[in-house]
Amino acid sequence: MKRIVALIVVIAVLAAATVVTVLLIQNGSTMNTPSAASVIPRPVSQVNGDGTFDLSGAKATGPLAELTGLPVSDEGSVVLAIAGDHPAGGYSLEVTSDGVQIEAVDEAGLFAGIQSLKQLTVDNAAQVTTIDDYPRYEYRGAMLDVARHFFDVASVKRYIDDIALLKFNYLHLHLTDDQGWRLQIDSWPALTEIGASTQVNGGGGGFYTKADYTEIVEYAAANYITIVPEIDVPGHTNAALSAYPELNCDGVAPGPYEGIEVGFSSLCIPNDRTYEFLDDVVREVVELTPGPYIHLGGDESLATTDADFLAFIARATALAAEHGKTLIGWHEMGRSEELPPGTIGQYWSFTTPQEGAAEHTLSFVKQGGSVIMSPADVAYLDMQYPDTSEFGLVWANGPTTVQEAYEWDPAQIIDGLGDAQLLGVEAPIWSETLVTIDDVEFMAFPRIAALAEVAWSPAGGTWADFEPRLATFGQRLDGLGVNYYRTPEVSWIE
Ligand code: TNX
Question: Which residues are registered as beta bridge partners of 327?
Fold first, then answer.
């Protein structure tokens, strides 16, 4: 008899619990607030407890305290400290019902911890949790093509805000291409006077003055993001060639270009003036750039003969390296065996490498450098989504889903290229079809969240685990006013 009563009690309790759970779920899904327990990119370890800490009225203490958005004070319940023994850029975050503690060995780590705290906070309530976290890769990049269409300083700052939340720490600016030259160079003023007046389909173009560029560099730095400037040579140079006849082998400047073909332009390789030009440009770009890298392009030089390409890369990289930065080049640059030691290759072939791509990429490692992975079929944010052709291109193995952008491992693409040889991962967005920063956000989000996780989190993440966190992240994007594609792959929370 007692047993039966006990059984009935158990059943009753279970039934009551089920009702409560169902109510909570219904409640949760009808209320338009994020469930605050999840973070993208996925931390190395996260254990959630019950309850929240109320940040309204809380004060923050320690380095970077002002970046929490809370009032800063000598004593606070939100404590940031340079402490612990995390790998560079890592942090620990402890939220209890009494307060918040973030520890890291460097400011970049504290900044990363603050980004996690933001994602754990809804309506000033931070989820009780314990996180230990550090990045898989040192270099976690996004690239913005400001050449095909120009994006003004405010737009670039908005993209910096967008990517900082996801713990990206480099922004590569593709500053020059056939359709436009976007950075003021004092010693070659026609580069912008003539070369910046165009963009794809017309509409005026534009360029950054040196003050503009510095404003971007400083804004990025305040978000623990380093700018990587790219001057793409010897191809992708119609804008420069249209400004300076002397850079053309026939001495005649071509007209401006506002289409989207690639591979038809080349600097004049045997001409000494070409190298004086490059030396001046690199000097001025380096003067404006505090970060360790300058990118020299080298991709799709289809209008340059093989012999000319090799002669150019050897001479151009040698002179550029003289200015004291580490060079980066698209993987074709690895065709050269005369790269300055430590030059970094950026791989843009597919997750199954096309002819020659693996060999050219490994060449950087043989020459003492490392590699950034940007496989076009998963990491190019300008590839169309499957269900909308509103923006984007489709050349890299067709449309790219969010799941495809998530489910790849940078260390599994090229034999002989594991984590030890990889500097990191970069998500480029090319702007042939993108006119405004809203357009850029639509193509970038939510796929860039997948790329952030590939770049930061330990290998082995699953779509089943990522998808609900992405749904939560969507609500955060809603709150921030970030434009994103509501792909049917994700059960977005209404
Ligand atoms: C390839 S891959 C390019 C760009 C285009 C892009 C469009 C590489 C280094 N270059 O010139 O804008 O495809 O998706």
Answer: 294
Report residue 191 as tokens.
């580069």
CA 112 – CA 122 distance, rounded (Å)? 18
Nearest to 415 by CA among 372, 359, 368: 359
Q: What is the predicted pLDDT for the residue at 256?
A: 96
Residue 489 annotated to the active site: no
Mutational pocket test of ligand 1: of 233, 262, 380, the residue with most ligand atoms within 8 Å of the beta carbon: 262
Which two three-digit tokens encode residue 78? 């939100």
Nearest CA to ligand 1 atom 10: 299
**Nearest residue by C-alpha to atom 9 in ligand 1:** 299
Q: Where does the pLDDT of residue 3 fall: very low under 50, low under 70, confident under 90, or very high at 90 and above?
A: low
Nearest CA among 232, 208, 231 for reference residue 218 = 208
Distance CA 253, CA 240 (A): 9
What is the C-alpha separation between 128 and 52, in angstroms, rounded? 5
Q: Residues lining ligand 1, judged by CB closer than 6 Å?
A: 262, 299-300, 330, 348, 376, 380, 382, 393, 430, 432
Question: What pTM does this model have?
Answer: 0.93
Residue 57 has pLDDT above 70, yes or no: yes
Mean pLDDT for the stretch of residues 172-191: 98
Dist. CA 183–CA 187, nearest whole Å: 12
The Å distance, Cα 430 to ligand 1 centre, comes to 7
Q: Is 35-133 a CATH 3.30.379.10 domain?
A: yes
Do the beta carbons of residue 296 and residue 333 sit within 8 Å?
yes
What are the structure tokens assigned to 274, written together? 């070409």
| 139-461 has CATH 3.20.20.80 classification | yes
Structure tokens at 37: 């327990």
> What phi, psi does 309 have (nearest 5°)?
-60, -50
Can you point out the beta strands (E) in 30-145? 45-54, 60-61, 78-82, 91-95, 100-104, 121-122, 125-133, 139-145
* The dihedral sign for the CA sequence 68, 74, 76, 79: positive
Distance in angstroms (rounded) separating the CA atoms of residues 450 and 404: 9
Nearest CA to ligand 1 atom 6: 430
